[in-house]
Amino acid sequence: xxxxxxxxSCDETSAAIVEKQxxxxxVLSNVTAxxxxxxxxxxxxxxxxxxxxxxxxxxxxxxxALNESRSMNHESWKEARTILQNDxxxxxVTYGPGLIGxxxxxxxxxxxxxxAFQKPLIPVNHLLAHLxxxxxxxxxxxxxxxxxxxxxxxxxxxFKSESEFKWLGGTRDxxxxxxxxxxxxxxxxxxxxxxxIERRAKLGEKTKIRFHAPLxxxxxxxxxxxxxxxxxxxxxxNKKLTNKNVxxxxxxxxxxxxxxxxxxxxxxxxxxxxxxxxxxxGVAANQTVREKLKQEAERIxxxxxEKIYCTDNGAMIGAYALMNPNLQEWKTVSANPELYxx
Length: 342
Ligand code: KG4
Ligand code: ZN
Prior knowledge:
Number of helices: 11
CATH topology of the largest domain: Nucleotidyltransferase, domain 5
Order of helices and strands: EEEHHHEHEHEEEHHHHEHEH
Bound molecules: 5'-O-[(R)-(carboxyoxy)(hydroxy)phosphoryl]adenosine, zinc ion
Mean pLDDT: 95
Low-confidence stretches: none
Strand content: 15-25%
Number of strands: 10
CATH class of the largest domain: Alpha Beta
Helix content: 40-55%
CATH superfamily of the largest domain: ATPase, nucleotide binding domain
Distance between the termini: 25 Å
């Protein structure tokens, strides 16, 4: 089965062509346009701006993804439509959660193509897709514990099979990535700040500054990161920060986030007797969290997607759709910005 998959839930517009090979997913093309530069100027995402950018990119991105799947590196719709007609069995699209304006662009485009080309549609939950990005070029066995850590979400799940899972806990306030981005802003770093905080943390690792790892001692799988933001704010208030101070604060903040993510994820693996952990979402691109989990986990295999498949991308939507091919008619699919785990 070969799928055209579309992602447009936030600030990335992405499309991919993916197919299933034995037990893993093969990506034939994955094209992403990002409106991050626009959002960096405003220090965060303004939904209206994100939706307008989605409208600009969606058609060129889909056209390019179709052409690149046959190694044709141009933007001709004439070639792309032939590929869509002849090669593609179904169209997958993110239907939630996300920003309504952004989601609508991808969903309505997918519905139009589904209707015009008579291809079934597969609606995909963006959050679950972040975890299933791990099936790209990797062999994953069930059961596993999944940790989704992105700019909007922090959730722990137990997966028994492709479609049977249990939500164990999540953040009560800010997501891990959101906290990093907000603290980054306090420190004068560009949005989104996660990768820059990781880079600076390596330079500040000798510091004695420590922040509280929120809820680390609590016997639940819940997270909370807004207190960390307040603690960092109190610490930097009325201080003239040098470059060295900023690096040290980055280290302390990253350590607090990673300590709590590691502790709760390993506790979940122990409780549910899983020897596999999958990380997903933008924060899973963080090499330090991957290494810490690997160091602390005995007899547990830790998987994280390749970096380009950690942040929002079309290939992960296709990966989920191939593992759970829930084919639907275009009329029955609609965007759901509040979608969670159902
Ligand atoms: O999954 P994603 O692309 O978008 C959402 O669905 O939210 O995640 C974006 C988040 C941002 O908060 C960004 O700061 C964070 O991922 N991020 C990182 C790293 N790279 C991106 N956080 C920590 N370390 C990184 N290397
Ligand atoms: Zn995401």
